[in-house]
Amino acid sequence: MRTVMMILALVTVWGGNATAIIHLSRNPEES
Predict the structure, then answer these.
(1) Which NCBIfam families does the entry link to (predicted)?
(2) What are the residues whose beta carbons fall under 8 Å from the beta carbon of 2, sequence distance 6 or more?
(3) What's the confidence (pLDDT) of residue 27?
(4) Backbone phi, psi, residue 21, to 5°
(5) What contacts 31, CB < 8 A, 6 or more positions away?
(6) Dihedral class, residue 12 (left if φ above 0, else alpha if ψ from -120 to 50, else beta)
């Protein structure tokens, strides 16, 4: 079941990147 672990890892990374991008796009002046 390595594929499941790989998918979970990718989802976690993509989730973190998505939230970071959303915060930057919403608050471009604060960054």
Answers:
(1) MetS_like_NSS
(2) none
(3) 79
(4) -65, -40
(5) 23, 24
(6) alpha
Which two three-digit tokens encode residue 21? 């991008």
Cβ-contact 12, 4 below 8 angstroms: no
- Give me the residue label for tokens 């002046």: 29
From residue 12, alpha-carbon distances to 2, 8, 18, 24, 31 in Å are 15, 6, 10, 18, 23
pLDDT digits (tens, 9 = 90+) for 1-31: 899 999 999 999 999 999 989 988 987 776 5
In single-letter form, the type of residue at position 19 comes to T
